[in-house]
Predict the 3D structure of the following.
Amino acid sequence: MAVSPGGKSSEAVAAGGAAPSGAGAPAARRHSRLTVLSGPSGVGKSTVAAELRRRHPDIWISVSVTTRKPRPGEVDGREYRFVDEREFDRLVTSGELLEWAEFAGNKYGTPREPVRRRIGQGLPTLLEIDLAGARQVRKSMEDAVLVFLAPPSWEELVRRLTGRGTESAEVIERRLDVAREELAAAGEFDHTLVNTSVEEVCRQMVTLINSYQ
Ligand code: 5GP
């Protein structure tokens, strides 16, 4: 994976340097900690992200690039930036992605620079990405806060994945395989939220993000 540590060390130094305890400490603005929302496909991450975007425009949510084709209703530049393989590979090669992963036959990645800028400005910043991506962020940004969104039950996750009606049976089966592995990874995360209701998860996310600013 092409995860260059370019953004990391400067952020880690700036964020990790505790302010002098005495009076008269420089009023340098503290970098914010990146929050990452992850979890199995179909658990409702994108719904939570959309609701957060609607209710809390102060929380900036990264727009990923993907080689997946847009679903009905998706707008280029809003849910994703839709690119072809060639452009995606260029972004990887030039180190412009903070992390990237292949998921169910498509590639997804987080543009590095906008995230670096928001964090550098001390603004609440959120990624909504898959487990492989969350693991890369964990490695490259040690102070990132990793949040795992869990389904209320396995049956509910299967219902959500099969009920969306936009994917073929083969794609759903691949996503279920990935979801089984992803559920087992909850222990690697700093926090687990159970998606019983979008509103409740949003409230908990806002509390978490604010507590780490
Ligand atoms: P979907 O195709 O359903 O929109 O997304 C499929 C999966 O890709 C979801 O688990 C979603 O969280 C993940 N994903 C979206 N953007 C990114 C990204 O930039 N990086 C990574 N690693 N995963 C992403």
Remarks:
- Residues 41, 45-46, 64, 68, 99-101, 103, 108-110, 128-130, 132-133 surround guanosine-5'-monophosphate (CB under 6 Å).
- The CA atoms of residues 44 and 195 lie 7 Å apart.
- Confidence is low (pLDDT under 50) at residues 1-27.
